[in-house]
Amino acid sequence: MHSQFQWKTLLRFLWLLLPVLTGCATVPANIDHACLLLDGRDDWYKSLRTSEKKWGVPMHVQLAIIHQESGFRSDAKPPRTKWFGFIPGPRPSSAFGYAQALDNTWEWYKSKTGNSRADRDDFGDAVDFIGWYVDTSNKTLGLSKADAKSQYLAYHEGHGGYKNKSFLKKTWLIHVADKVAARAVDYREQLKQCAKASDKRATHFLF
To answer: Is residue 23 part of a domain?
Structure first.
């Protein structure tokens, strides 16, 4: 009887723990509303707020970039090219994770920040990367950290590409950047609705 009680207790504990273990690994059901996106993901909120304070990049800009780049999928990769229209070929780039950072850019980030153990499929590391990159774009290109459209163009094309205005030849990319900017505005207004009572402890949202 005692052994049976222990097993039942363990199973109940594991059942209660399951949402905690899987909550941040799964894609949120609603990624279009910041309050619903972050509800129950206090560690994501803390990471976003930490990046905002560290790099001066608004939370809504960080979220808008991730929404466009990976749709909040930790293991996101570019779709493979197709040979003859149906045979899977190589991927067009080494982009991976929440921020879709390239191998070389990620290594640059780790080297510059000293965050040598950073992983692209870790949300906290991903938003720190975005904060660092946007801050670098601000210093290198003079772009406002709140200018989601210009920052996304620099994020996508790289600093050299942005300087050379490579995006002007890519109408589709400008449309995407407009979408990112609009998403950032939506996120900004939504975050006001679920503002924290205090930023000292980012543990509960007010709905």
So the answer is: no
Distance of alpha carbon 183 from alpha carbon 52, whole angstroms: 18
Which CATH number characterizes residue 125's domain? 1.10.530.10
| Domain extent for 74 | 30-193
Number of domains in the chain: 1
Determine, yes or no, domain membership for 140: yes
Residue 67: inside a domain: yes
Mean pLDDT by groups of 10 residues along the chain of 207 residues: 52 46 68 96 96 98 98 84 55 82 97 97 98 98 98 98 97 98 98 66 45
pLDDT for res 6: 57
| pTM value > 0.90 | no
**What pLDDT sits at residue 17?**
46
List phi, psi (to 5°) of 195: -60, 150
